[in-house]
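To fix ideas, we reproduce below a protein record of this kind.
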Amino acid sequence: MEIADRPHAEDTPSLHQRILSDISDRILSGEWAPGHRIPYEYELSATYGCSRMTVNKALTQLAKAGLIERRRRSGSFVRRPKSQAAILEIHDIKTEVQALGLPYHYQLVSRCIRRGTSDDIERLGLTKPSEIIELISLHFAGLRPFCHENRVISLKTVPDAGHETFANIAPGPWLVARIPWSVAEHRIRATGVEAGLAPMLDIDAGTPSLVVERQTWSADQPVTHVRFTYAGDSHTLVARFTPSHG
């Protein structure tokens, strides 16, 4: 009897699930980064000692789940995750990343307390120069940079920020937990990533990016201005509205 005519033990759910688990674990851990080529079907078939039909079923399921994309004649590749955030919400980047099924990591790049410059005054809406703290940080999805954060905080409004290192907690959730904001303003624009910022996001200079700027006040006092920069193909802004009455 030909091997092809025998019942395929490899087609059992346990092996099918093993292939799914192995590939998804490598993607979600960041071991296989966005754009990484998945081994060809014949390679996976040899690795797992199973039929190409079993491999094809697993890859099809991974594609439906949005983890990979299948390109005709080119193979299968890890899909770059796309997050969604409501424009009018004060969202948490950690929550965005975890919603993608990816491990989150935060890294403080620099922390500086100084006298506010003219640019800081404009960003925060200050009436005169005062002391501020500037924080540069990176947010990761798996092993890859997800978002670059540039933030200034008014120490007049939030003096406790001057005593926080921000080494282990991102400034966004730290602020939300300590000072109520009464007004928030968002500005969204598309631009090419600057040469100095590109290496931090692990992309080429000039790559299209999405920049989200947010300013918040508490009882008419400026709290913070933050500038988030995302690679343009990794983030989507979504807002839902209801019609006004009257």
Confidence is low (pLDDT under 50) at residues 1-12. The first helix runs from residue 13 to 28. Residues 164 and 171 are 9 Å apart (CA to CA).
